[in-house]
Every structure is written in C-alpha cells, then in structure tokens.
Design a protein that fits this description.
Oligomer: single chain
Number of helices: 7
Order of helices and strands: HEHEHEEHEHEHEHE
Strand order of the largest sheet: 5-2-6-7-1-8
Helix content: 25-40%
Mean pLDDT: 88
Low-confidence stretches: none
Largest sheet: 6 strands, parallel
Length: 234
C-alpha cells in the first residue's frame, strides 16, 4: 500500500459541466469514471447532457455520442439549437399546418459546422446492428484511437440491443453492458455519461438511485448517479 503513487486530487483533469453549483459539488467530470443519469421522461436529461457535451467541446475536449432515440439529423438540430443560443435562432411556421418550430440561422449554422468539425462525433444508429452493445463499444474504442475523444454519451441504456431472450437475460445484458462501459472508461481514461430511465414508481416525487430501472448493478457500478426532475412552481 505504501508504494502506491501519491496523487493530488486537485491536479486531476476534469471537464466542467458549466453549472457552477454542480461543479462546486463534484469538481467536474473526471477521467476513468461513469456517470449515470436518471429521471422521468421529459425531465430534461437529454437536453442537459447535450449541453454537457457542448461544454466539453468548449473546453477543447472531443466528444462522441450514441443516441438510440433520435435520428442523426434530429440529434444534430437539438445540439445546434442549444449551442447557437437565442440570438441566432429563428422561429418559422409550416405554411400548410401552421405549426411553429425553431431553426438555427444560416450564419450560426456555418459557424457551428466549423466549430464542431472533428470535435463532436455521433454514432450512426441507422446502420445495421448499429444499436448493439458490441457496435457501441467498438465505435467508442475507435473514437478514442482515431480521434482522441475523451467524453462519451449513451442515451439511453434501454435503446441498446443485448440479444436477450427473456427478462432475466435482458437485465444481465444491461449489467454486462454497464460493466463494459466502466472497463472502457478506466482503460481509456475517459468519462462516460449513461442515461438510464427509472422504473415505474407510483407517482413518487423524488427519485433516487434505487429507482433506476433494470438491474441494480447499473448504479452499483457507477461512480456518480444523478437524478433530474422538472420542478414546478408551488
């Protein structure tokens, strides 16, 4: 034990979230760690994690994301809207339905294209087998070797395919996949963010680590577990 290298925690590099209150509590997101994020549907998990990736790029880190819920173009638009900010977002209306939507201005889009180039990478979930755990892990490893990515996102655990034939196999598959992500984070000294939806909780207002759906190994293997909820005015 006495021969273990002495490391000053303050010297370890971390990627800040850009949320001062959160950064002051955890010191940022450190290499070789896995963070699990949970919360009710529509609570803002994907939005916040998209912002964390943008913040990482702003800190000269390269990032790689897997999204099992959004197509590539929808994921891109979501990230671009966040990165552009309100000054460079235009409100438009569909001439047939009247539905309003928001779009990044051409000026800002061109700037963001140049800013994100070779810094922000997205796994292609439309490719055959692109949502299997083997494909995700393989692409993540390639992103480290080829592009030097240091921050990763899996959004979300339920969208990955494990080849399970029953519930028991599915939960073991989830646990094994989380274990592979932990090993990947430690081996490559990167940080992995993982979105895991909570199980049904009969309207419970506050969610904790025990509310994460699937196997308990998901949170047991994580370095950080965060629960997001949308607060309403009382």
């Amino acid at each position: 034990l006495s021969g273990v290298e002495n490391v000053d925690p303050l010297s370890l590099p971390s990627v800040l979230s850009g949320v001062p209150a959160l950064d002051s509590l955890i010191g940022g997101f450190y290499p070789s760690e896995l963070s699990v994020w949970t919360g009710k549907r529509g609570g803002g998990k994907s939005t916040l994690l998209g912002q964390l990736l943008v913040e990482a790029v702003n800190q000269r880190q390269r990032v790689c994301a897997y999204s099992g819920e959004l197509s590539a173009w929808r994921f891109r638009e979501w990230i671009y809207l966040q990165a552009a900010g309100p000054a460079f977002i235009e409100r438009k209306a569909d001439k047939f339905s009247g539905r309003e939507f928001y779009s990044v201005s051409p000026f800002a889009r061109k700037k963001l294209d140049a800013w994100f180039a070779r810094k922000f990478f997205l796994c292609d979930n439309s490719a055959p087998g692109g949502n299997s755990e083997d494909a995700i892990c393989s692409l993540f490893s390639y992103a480290v070797r080829r592009y030097g990515c240091a921050v990763f996102l899996v959004d979300n655990l339920m969208s990955a395919r494990f080849g399970a034939s029953n519930d028991g196999d599915f939960y073991r598959g989830q646990s094994n996949f989380v274990g592979r992500l932990v090993e990947f984070a430690k081996r490559e000294e990167v940080h992995v963010h993982l979105v895991a939806h909570p199980r049904k909780n009969d309207g419970k207002a506050m969610l904790d680590a025990d509310e994460v759906g699937g196997s308990g190994d998901i949170t047991n293997r994580a370095d950080n577990v965060f629960s997001l909820q949308r607060l309403t005015e009382q």
